[in-house]
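Weekly structure sync, notes
Attendees: PL (lead), two postdocs, one rotation student
Agenda item 3: pending single-chain targets
PL asked that the sequence for the first pending target be pasted directly into the notes so everyone works from the same version. It is reproduced below exactly as submitted, 98 residues in total.
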Amino acid sequence: MCFLGSLSIFNSQGSELLTDEEYSELRTHIMSNYTQAPSQAIAQVNVFLTEYKSRFTPEQHLKMQYTKAYFEIEDERFEAVYNTLTFCKKLSDALKKT
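Predicted structure, written out during the meeting:
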């Protein structure tokens, strides 16, 4: 585990899924530290999506994608928002089938 300010980033290489508390800590870190810098927030979300890919539950993955879309809107990356929300729709549909 490494520390980023007061945030403890959990081992991204573990095989266990993130708890809701661990996920909330990651999301809170993004929302608290990058609200004024949407392009940096997008970059951080992409890092988390890559590093924690195997540890996110399907619902957490979907929520992190929505976080990404939020910052893409803030950064006026409208084509990227469309692509992200299209992906979110596919994730959501897959979750409904399970």
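Discussion points:
- The two ends are 32 Å apart (CA to CA).
- The chain has a mean pLDDT of 90.
Action: rotation student to compare against the earlier draft before next sync.
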